[in-house]
Write a structure and sequence with these properties.
The complex is a heterodimer of chains A (about 120) and B (about 325). With about 120 residues, chain A is mainly alpha-helical. Chain A contains eight helices and no strands. Chain A has one domain (about 5-120): Globin-like. In chain A, helix 2 packs across helix 4 (about 40-55), helix 2 (about 10-25) packs across helix 6 and helix 6 (about 80-95) runs antiparallel to helix 7. Helix content of chain B is about 20%, strand content about 30%. Chain B has helices spanning about 20-25, 60-65, 160-165, 205-215, 240-245, 270-280, 295-305; strands spanning about 5-10, 10-15, 45-50, 70, 80-85, 90-100, 105-110, 125, 135, 145-150, 170-180, 195-200, 225-230, 250-260, 265-270, 290-295, 315-320. The chains are: A mainly alpha (about 120), B alpha/beta (about 325).
Chain lengths: ~120, ~325
């Protein structure tokens, strides 16, 4: 069976999904503050590899990279509630693309698996 | 695997941990052109093998294929053998005219001695006789027989003050063109989409080129040009822009924003990003956007437009990065 990444339309379709996902994050006061002063193009590239990874597409994503990338944010107060908010937006993005509940849950579980690395636990 | 090393003219220069190829060359008193140190101005173009792929981001494919890369962005994990640190070939130019077109802003027009192909909105690196380089965007369009740049005179600025003292007939050397912030007609229907051109200060210079280039290439959709400045008297090219508004019979709409001394006539004191958000929301179709000038404002504009619904791929940004304090090379 093909991956959700392929069924969503692969890399070209991912662009619109990434925009939707990142726009939800930037307009959410709970998490937007962590993206102040961040280079948007670079951030969008990172969100693209994250979405590619959680939908089973070709993306390299190591726990070590995640730890390194979020360490300064954890020092600045990044906590469970913020990860919850991001997973919420991920779910909303997939639902807006018409992805079925079972698959949305699978993706959310995969995103969930990065929590300990993101929060440097 | 060998330790990270730069090999040039048969000499091996070991890289310190976390050191870029540019810093390594400068530390060993090997002169290399450089300016922004942020992978943007492309002044530090060097050629070698293997070219670190991360240091080729944003290069023209033809340059990347030839093994060119940006020395300031290169952190090789092995040996890199350089064949050239001379960068791209310089273009010799002669100054045609220089005049003040605004508060502290000069318009320089010069003619290239050799053939020079560019797209309006791209930038060139201008070389000071001492070797310092600064990036200036091209405000001219290809139908004009000169290249035009807008120079803001920066107090104590080496290159801007030198440029402003040049007399017609003076020779100068530029390299480039660089940059990807320019108008392409795109796919069917793209010529009917709205355009948003926004910038502060001499960010207007590439926008003035892009604007006239889009019209020359048959752009049909509405064009909104947003010019921002701290003070109203810092806005410039107002008359030329007004004329173009009339000539295009409403296709071009002008939005002038100044934070101080404003709210007179067509000038409002709305912040530029708020204005950009409002304009975007008023559009009937998804726009393409071009943002130039002060990096902090370009970043704000980029975010405002994205949040207002503009697709990230439709936002082209050209932040004018400041030149970092020079590092002694000898």
């Amino acid at each position: 069976m093909s991956s959700l990444f392929e069924r969503l339309g692969g890399a070209p379709a991912m662009q619109a999904a990434v925009d939707d996902f990142y726009r939800r994050i930037l307009t959410d006061d709970r998490v937007a503050k962590f993206f102040e002063g961040v280079d948007m193009d670079a951030q969008i590239a990172k969100q693209r590899s994250f979405l590619t990874f959680v939908t089973g597409g070709p993306a390299e994503y190591s726990g070590q990279d995640l730890r390194q990338a979020h360490k300064h944010l954890v020092d600045g107060g990044l906590a469970d509630e913020h990860v919850d908010a991001v997973v919420e937006h991920l779910t909303a993005t997939l639902e807006s693309l018409g992805v079925g509940q079972a698959e949305v849950q699978e993706v959310a579980a995969l995103a969930e698996s990065t929590r300990k690395d993101v929060l440097n636990r | 695997m060998t330790a990270p090393t730069v090999t040039i003219d048969g000499e091996n220069l070991p890289l310190l941990p976390g050191e870029s190829v540019l810093d390594c060359l400068l530390r060993h008193e090997r002169p290399v052109d450089h300016s922004c140190r942020a992978g943007h101005c492309q002044a530090c173009l060097v050629q070698g093998t293997p070219a670190p792929p991360d240091a080729q981001a944003g290069l023209k494919p033809s340059l990347a294929e030839q093994g060119f890369f940006l020395a300031c962005q290169a952190y090789p994990k092995e040996r890199v053998t350089l064949s050239s640190v001379a960068g791209a070939a310089p273009i010799r130019c002669v100054l045609q005219s220089s005049e003040s077109i605004g508060e502290g802003i000069a318009r320089l027009r010069f003619v290239a001695r050799d053939s020079f192909a560019y797209r309006p909105g791209q930038f060139v690196n201008v070389r000071h006789p001492d070797g310092a380089l600064r990036s200036y965007s091209l405000a001219s369009v290809t139908a004009e027989d000169f290249l035009e740049i807008h120079v803001r005179r920066i107090p104590g600025g080496l290159v801007s003050n030198w440029l402003c003292t040049l007399q017609p007939g003076a020779e100068l050397e530029v390299r480039g063109p660089n940059g990807t912030c320019y108008y392409l007609p795109g796919d069917d229907g793209d010529v009917d989409r709205p355009l948003i051109l926004a910038g502060t200060g001499t960010g207007l210079s590439p926008l003035w080129g892009i604007l006239r280039d889009a019209l020359a290439q048959g752009h049909r959709g509405p064009i909104h040009l947003l010019q921002g400045a701290l003070r109203a008297d810092r806005l410039y090219l107002i008359d030329e822009l007004g004329e173009l508004c009339r000539a295009t019979e409403g296709q071009l709409r002008l939005h002038l924003c100044a934070l101080e001394g404003s709210d007179v006539g067509p000038i409002t004191n709305q912040p530029l990003d708020a204005c950009a958000h409002e304009v975007t929301k008023s559009l009937a179709a998804a726009p393409r956007a071009f943002l130039c000038g002060d990096p902090a404002i370009v970043s704000k504009l980029q975010r405002a437009l994205f949040i207002a619904g503009v697709a990230s791929v439709d936002i082209l940004a050209d932040p004018f990065l400041p030149t970092p304090t020079p590092v002694a090379t000898a």
